[in-house]
Amino acid sequence: MSPSALVKVKGVRDGLLVTLAEGEWAEVRQALLALIREKQDFFRGARLALDVGQRAVRAADLGKLRDELADHEVTLWAVLSGSPKTQANAQALGLATRLSKPMPQRAARPRPPFLGQEALLVPRTLRSGMRVEYEGHVVVFGDVHPGAEIVATGHVIVWGRLRGTVHAGARGDTQAVVCALDLAPTQLRIAEVIATAPPRRGKPHPEVARLQDGKVVAEPWDA
Predict the structure, then answer these.
(1) What 3 state SS string does the chain have?
(2) Which of 71, 150, 173, 191 has a Cα at 20 to 30 A from 157?
(3) Domains, the chain, with CATH or none
(4) Predicted TM-score (pTM) above 0.70
């Protein structure tokens, strides 16, 4: 059976809604990945909500699929299901379970600190081993995985999860900031000051990191 027979795709306000047909999870999962490989230019950089119907899907299977989609530069942000077990597993992974309720880390759309200025736009998730270096500001529309690195002489904005290494103000700009919808980098550096993320407390929320009294501090990003 062709992938398109098992996977239906339509556009919604928050990106793409993918509905999986009835069948074994392994079969429909492979059909989805095959369709994405077949139409990679269409899916690249997309935000995807997945409707799995009434099937109960384990958290491990959802997490594996999220990582596989990320490898194809597709962000899984929501899982829709009539199964309470699947809903609970999706929520445990930080995924939304309703189209009308965006992911917690994407609920706010704060204003970038350099509104109106030029910046390098990166319209995809940065995976391990990828590096972006730019003379100016950098904006990433996606996640930054552990092992990925961003170096910018200006600000760094991540419209997603920041898990990798980031260096803002790389030429000594102490006014540079790092903003993310989920700020938990492996290492964060502003000018010459280095910090690592503290243990996570509570749900992810948009934060901005800046220098204050010679130290990196993080505060809510809701300007």
Answers:
(1) CCHHHHEEEEEECCEEEEEECCCCHHHHHHHHHHHHHHCHHHHCCCEEEEECCCCCCCHHHHHHHHHHHHHCCCEEEEEECCCHHHHHHHHHCCCECECCECCHHHCCCCCCCCCCCCEEEECCCECCCCEEEECCEEEECCCECCCCEEEECCCEEEEEEECCEEEECCCCCCCCCEEEEEECCCEEEECCEEECCCCCCCCCCCEEEEEECCEEEEEECCC
(2) 71
(3) 3-101 (3.30.750.50), 119-220 (2.160.20.70)
(4) no
